Amino acid sequence: MSSKVSSNSSNETFKPDLFKGKVIFCTGGRSGICYSIVQSLMSLGADACIVGRDAKGLQESAERLQQQTGRKCLAAAADVRDPKSLSEAVRKTEERFGRIDHVICGAAGNFLAPISNLSENAFRTVVEIDLLGTYNTIRATLPLVRQSRGSYIHISATLHYRGTPYQAHVSAAKAGVDALSRALAAEEGPRGVRSNVIAPGPIAGTEGMDRLLPKGKKVDTEIPLQRQGSTTDIANAAIFLLSPAAAYITAATLVVDGGHWHTASQI
Ligand code: HXC
Questions:
Q1: Which reaction does it catalyse (predicted)?
Q2: Does residue 153's CB lie within 6 angstroms of at least one atom of ligand 1?
Q3: What is the CATH number for 40?
Q4: What ipTM is given for this predicted complex?
């Protein structure tokens, strides 16, 4: 017999003006986990810029976020593989809001493929989106984040803690992201900038799960907490890590997976 514990929404747990006056810059914010993070931070007072390749979808998401939260959200179309377009997104954010406090590096690409069938370009594409894209985002935002003594959250994974079949490309990229976050934390800590990683497990209703979970496969009973995560679970972790309550936490990885990777065979 199991009793599942679900998460509270951020409004029930955190004080409503926790991020008042703060500005969030989020890559991959159009949908899924990152949308939920931005929505939660905005509902606690932040304004935001969301970044992604799909200009139309991005604009729709920004408008929805504004309606849901009453805060301001800028949509800046950019590809994290293109430093110039990212710098332009940062420039627009500074022009609109005057600052960037917290950066969520969430843009990612993934698909299932065995190494034997993974072309050099396929491997490179995922490494360029996930790892190089994170580096590009850091480079573009760091001057403003230094000014505000803000912080970074990188959305990683647990796939690379063990060998996950058909995920060589993303596992290699996410291992790099984890290392990059720790290096950033070490270099920028003396300037008051923090950098942490959130490693989500199986999160229901996300594009990642749609792509990776074999049709019909049930994972809930493999997870110690007996359910897939929700995007709210990840958003709550992000709120904590960006809040003053985490002022002494940097170079850390917060795994939010209901205990999954320790116990489950595979995704
Ligand atoms: C093998 C594949 C493939 C597949 C693409 N490729 N899909 N190879 N199996 N299923 C190859 C292509 O053939 C090509 O190589 C190369 O990858 C680049 O493909 P393009 O389509 O040209 O690239 P692009 O348009 O830039 O698209 C990038 C993408 C795409 C990653 C391939 O899927 C994408 O844009 N995804 C964004 C959204 C996404 O993936 N979200 C899920 C994130 S989930 P060749 O050799 O033919 O040129 C996530 C969670 C991880 O990250 C952790 C989960 C627990």
A1: a (2E,4Z)-dienoyl-CoA + NADPH + H(+) = a 4,5-saturated-(3E)-enoyl-CoA + NADP(+); a (2E,4E)-dienoyl-CoA + NADPH + H(+) = a 4,5-saturated-(3E)-enoyl-CoA + NADP(+)
A2: no
A3: 3.40.50.720
A4: 0.95
As for how many domains the chain has, the answer is: 1
Q: What confidence score (pLDDT) does residue 1 get?
A: 45
If one residue of 30, 82, 125 were mutated to test the ligand 1 pocket, choosing by the most ligand atoms within 8 A of its CB, it would be: 125
Q: What is the set of active-site residues?
A: 156, 174
Residue 255: both structure tokens together: 């795994």
Q: Is the CB of 78 under 6 A from ligand 1?
A: no
| pTM, to two decimals | 0.95
Domain span at residue 46 reads 19-263
Rounded-to-integer distance, Cα 113 and Cα 125, Å: 13
Atom of ligand 1 nearest to the CA of 117: 1
Tell me if 9 is assigned to some domain: no
Sheet containing 23-27: which strands, arranged edge to edge? 73-77, 47-52, 23-27, 102-105, 151-155, 194-200, 253-256
The DSSP element (H or E) to which 79 belongs, if any, is none
Q: Is residue 183 part of a domain?
A: yes
Q: pLDDT tens for residues 78-125?
A: 999 999 999 999 999 999 999 999 999 999 999 999 999 999 999 999
